[in-house]
Design goal:
Chain A has no helices and 9 strands. By secondary structure, the first copy, chain A, is an all-beta fold. In chain A, a hairpin with a 4-residue loop joins strand 2 and strand 3.
């Protein structure tokens, strides 16, 4: 059984948000995302075909939604974003990594 | 957007392992499991129809496999258990909670 750790293999610096596929099949993708002050592009929204369940495992972030209040996530916070719920990341901790686990399904 | 925290709502004591469904559709189930010294039944193996991706988010545990070496998991460790890979939990931390996130898919 191949064991890995979600907090390992994070480079000291990275220009863009890191995204790493951990598992997938035809019905889902499990992804690690690492941010460090990164946010979504300044204009526009993520508008996804799939549902996304996500949890913050380290750090903190703020998500904005087109039709709902902003949500601030800290370690352990999770939420489910139904398909086509327009959202964006407006803030992540600038001085340390924010590690997300995202399940697209 | 409904926010919850994976480390919340854990009772002080619980006789059996706790299992809580966090999200599901026809293709997956996302589940929180909380153990405190709990293990699998002494005889037999879990033999599941679905793949299971799991991560330990707090605590520690040991998984045994019928055809592979034991695996010790600490915080952040994750692994993928393909369907019909017979396994069992042989140990979890006895004095504090072990929190698992399990994705059955």
């Amino acid at each position: 059984m191949k064991l890995a750790n979600i907090f390992d293999s994070i480079p000291d610096s990275f220009e863009q948000e890191l995204s790493q596929l951990l598992a997938q099949n035809e019905n889902l993708r499990i992804e690690r995302i690492v941010s460090k002050g990164h946010t979504s592009p300044a204009s526009g929204w993520y508008d996804q075909e799939e549902n996304e369940w996500l949890i913050v495992l380290k750090g903190a972030a703020i998500l904005a939604f087109e039709h709902a209040d902003d949500v601030r996530l800290k370690c352990g916070d999770y939420l489910n974003i139904p398909a086509h719920t327009r959202h964006r990341v407006t803030w992540t901790e600038p001085d340390s990594e924010t590690v997300w686990l995202a399940i697209h399904y």
